[in-house]
Amino acid sequence: MQWQLRGDRPIYQQLMDRLTEQIVSGQLGPGDKVPPVRELAAEAGVNPNTMQRALADLEREGLMYTNRTSGRYVTEDREMIAKIREQIASDRIAEFLAGMNQLGFTEQEIVGLLEKRQKGEEKHGE
Amino acid sequence: MQWQLRGDRPIYQQLMDRLTEQIVSGQLGPGDKVPPVRELAAEAGVNPNTMQRALADLEREGLMYTNRTSGRYVTEDREMIAKIREQIASDRIAEFLAGMNQLGFTEQEIVGLLEKRQKGEEKHGE
DNA sequence: ATGGCTGTATTATTATCATAATACAAAGAA
DNA sequence: TTCTTTGTATTATGATAATAATACAGCCAT
Questions:
Q1: Labelling A34: which of A123, A124, B100, B121 has CA 20 to 30 A away?
Q2: Among residues B60, B63, B42, which one has the least CA distance to residue B51?
Q3: pTM to 2 decimal places
């Protein structure tokens, strides 16, 4: 997995985002064992404390739970996962549209640009 | 103007974003006088030093210039402004699509959601 | 010339983030 | 039992951000 961390936001928040995406997209399924803190930290090139903070925060959100010494697992509440996925999507759409409007783009233009980008992508991968 | 600053990113960066939007959308036109640092800072509820940093950075990008004691002005290079606008739009679209793909949404679904949101908005404002 | 407005510079203080380096407790395996 | 793996806690250090409080230089109108 590629973590692609940037410098413009707290790392632990970016880690939370990536892990949430993993869960919400099913790459980390309900009940799946989450790799150990130290392993994830090493993989992401981050201090274990930082990864620990991200995981603890995700746990407070209910996306994971801990079996004290055996490890950490993804929640089995599929409904919650689905809800969070929809919520994130909704937020991103709202933010994207608001931002584009602020730049002076109309909804029509935006959809047009998206479809244009889509066609461009088809010529390359997938 | 509403600045709507959040806590998840450096304030000076958010200030840069807002000011750039103002210029790129024409609310601050080429050659227009930019309000004094202290005034902008007060309006945004921010320390003058922080606003100063944002403005200085925008100046380094070429979006503004300073007439030492008379004040600060928006660049008159309309082409540069237009280019930056397109660049920002392009970046946002790419980031938005990548993020939504990561959540498991196809391009078709995304466009569908956008159009749905668009219809919902029509019932309210504008 | 004086006072006010402009951008700019300086110093200090506080908070958050990230890292480093350990240490400990509990469960499970050898 | 002993060792390893797990999450967790603690202390210290450095970097960046943001604030506060000033101060200075240049232009301009009075």
A1: B100
A2: B42
A3: 0.91
